[in-house]
Every structure is written in C-alpha cells, then in structure tokens.
Amino acid sequence: MTAALILASASPRRRELLDQIGIRYRVCPVDIDETPRPDEAPLAYVQRVAAEKSAAAVLRFGTDIPVLAADTSVVLDGEIMGKPQDQAHALAMLRRLSGTTHQVYTAVSLRGLRHGEAVSISAVTFRPLAEAELLAYWASGEPRDKAGAYAIQGQGGVFVAALNGSFSGVVGLPIFETAQLLAAQGIKVF
Ligand SMILES: Cc1cn([C@H]2C[C@H](O)[C@@H](COP(=O)(O)OP(=O)(O)OP(=O)(O)O)O2)c(=O)[nH]c1=O
Fold first, then answer.
1. Which residue, of 16, 19, 48, 107, has the fewest CB within 10 Å?
2. Is residue 150 part of a domain?
3. Model confidence, pTM
C-alpha cells in the first residue's frame, strides 16, 4: 500500500491517531532542539516546533508526498511544561497540575504544495492528587515521555475530572484539525 504522507514523528500515539482515521503514512522521525526561546509564548512555541519538525523532515526525506508533524505542550498559568527530565521534575509538574485546570496545546504542521498549520487548545481539570498516587504513577513508567508527565489515554486518565476540547489533541494529534489540513491538500478520510 502506498503512503499518503510522511509522519515526521517518533510518537506511537500520533501513529495510532492516524490509524484511527485510516490514513496511510510512512514514519520518518526527526530530532530537533525543542528548547523554548526566552519569553516565547506557548502558542508561538508549539507552532514553531511543529513547523520545524516538518521542515526538518522535508529537508531530510524529500517532498514527493506531504509531511505531517505535531507538537504538544502542557501549559499552566502561561508556562510551558514539556516532558519530565527525571522523577523529581515529573512529581513537581504533577503536584502543580493537582486540583486545578491547565491547557494542552497541540500544533499540527502539514507541508505539501503549501504549508498548512492548525492548533488545538484544550482545557484539562485534574482532581486533587495524593502524594502516594504520584509516586505510584511515576513507578508505572507512563509519565516519562509525556508532556506534563501524564497520559490522558492511559492510567493518567483517572486524574482527569473534566476535559473541554479535543481528546485526540491532548493525546498528541487532533484528528478534527488534522483531517481538515489533509483535506485541503487532497488527502481525504472519506
Ligand atoms: C498531555 C499528553 C501528552 N502526551 C504525549 C504526546 C506526545 O507524544 C508527547 C509530547 O511530546 P512531543 O514533543 O509533542 O512529541 P514526541 O517527542 O513524543 O514525538 P515527535 O516529536 O517525534 O512527534 O506527550 C500523551 O501521550 N498524552 C497526554 O495526555
């Protein structure tokens, strides 16, 4: 089967979400520096990083088919939370998310004949978390490679009292916005 696009991502979640809408793709991950710039706003940051991932893949793998990339950040009080560096960092992030509402920003970048971009912003409310739960959650291994140190699609889902927005966007690839970008470049789900 021929691929409709290149997925410039190492994230298994992004593969699963493309599988969910039946789009065929070839996985070509890229490694870019994801350090936020000084005073960079969360929206500008996720858009820049998603665009840099797709641009890096176009440079490396060519442009015979469109290239899709995304970037997800957890944002609390305007502050960007990326992936945890270690246990202490993960626990510190989860303690701050406990009992409050944060945003999850996911930017999508699709480079074909032109550059299509979209952003999904969702509000996620955590119930208060007990210290023992946080330690057990870290020990499960799930927080390690996740922005904000949790996965709504995994055991971390039990922390989520409310979601206002896009479940797939929180997981890492908003399928509504992605399908719209793909359709604009002639790649249709139906
Ligand atoms: C908040 C949240 C994030 N995540 C994941 C999605 C992303 O994989 C990760 C955020 O890191 P990203 O830098 O967006 O993506 P990545 O490094 O995993 O993959 P790539 O850059 O190669 O595309 O956090 C979840 O799986 N569930 C969640 O609930």
1. 19
2. yes
3. 0.97
Ligand 1 center to residue 176 CA distance, Å? 18
Q: Is 172 in the pocket of ligand 1 (CB under 6 A)?
A: yes
Best residue among 80, 171, 175 to mutate for probing ligand 1's pocket (most ligand atoms within 8 Å of CB) is: 171
Amino acid at 87: Q
How many whole angstroms from 83 Cα to the centroid of ligand 1?
A: 8
* Ligand 1, atom 19, residue with closest C-alpha: 11
- Judge contact between 12 and 171, C-beta under 8 A: no
CATH number at residue 38: 3.90.950.10
pLDDT, residue 1, reads 65
pLDDT one-digit tens code per residue, 119-160: 999 999 999 999 999 999 999 999 999 999 999 999 999 999
Q: Which residues contact 105 (CB under 8 A, 6 or more apart)?
A: 42, 43, 46, 72, 73, 75, 119, 120, 121
- In a domain, residue 189? The reply is no
